[in-house]
Amino acid sequence: MVFLPETINSPGLYFLDLGILLGGLGVVFFGKIIYSALFLGIVFVCVALLYLLLNADFLAAAQILIYVGAINVLIVFAIMLVNKPENETTQKKRTFGDILSGISVLGLFLFLIIMILNTTWIQNSSLNPELENSFQSVDIIGIHLLTDLLLPFELLSILLLVALVGAITIARKEISPKIDKN
């Protein structure tokens, strides 16, 4: 028997959705980039809690470890390594590109809302007998990562490590010692 979570009317769902929405607005509208990065961490944590609420514990753990523990910390370190002057108070005027992107984002948002409202979200395991005999999601992910996706997974980790070392090398300001040639 497959457990299908029915948390659509759960009060926790509404609080997490509100946290994701307000965190996303904080990412976009705060002036200081460090505050935006911290609000991005709040969004990542709320998404992980949403996964827990939907009984996807592996996805929640991966969300916390990868996005909050690695990606968001990397973003904060990158912000701290780059010294941007904070005294810039110039006001940017709206351009045609800003208006066009706003209209595009609004259109995409309305399209997604229409698609969400027109989609049937009810699943019944008795209609699909393959769901009753399937593995757990963690088992399937583990089998794929350790068999047919092992080489791409390891190559991706090496690529990310090289990118991290390169970013630290570029961002680090090293003062070379002066050598007297007398």
TrEMBL record:
Its job: NDH shuttles electrons from NAD(P)H:plastoquinone, via FMN and iron-sulfur (Fe-S) centers, to quinones in the photosynthetic chain and possibly in a chloroplast respiratory chain. The immediate electron acceptor for the enzyme in this species is believed to be plastoquinone. Couples the redox reaction to proton translocation, and thus conserves the redox energy in a proton gradient.
GO molecular function: NADH dehydrogenase (ubiquinone) activity; quinone binding
Lineage: Eukaryota, Viridiplantae, Streptophyta, Zygnematophyceae, Zygnematophycidae
EC number(s) given by UniProt: 7.1.1.-
UniProt xrefs under Gene3D superfamilies: NADH-ubiquinone/plastoquinone oxidoreductase chain 6, subunit NuoJ (1.20.120.1200)
Database matches in InterPro entries: NADH_UbQ/plastoQ_OxRdtase_su6, Nuo/plastoQ_OxRdtase_6_NuoJ
Assigned keywords, A-Z: Chloroplast, Membrane, NAD, NADP, Plastid, Plastoquinone, Quinone, Thylakoid, Transmembrane, Transmembrane helix
Protein name: NAD(P)H-quinone oxidoreductase subunit 6, chloroplastic
Bilayer-crossing regions: 12-30, 37-54, 60-83, 95-117, 149-171
Entries under Pfam families matching the protein: Oxidored_q3
Source organism of this protein record: Mesotaenium caldariorum
Quaternary structure (record): NDH is composed of at least 16 different subunits, 5 of which are encoded in the nucleus.
Underlying gene: ndhG
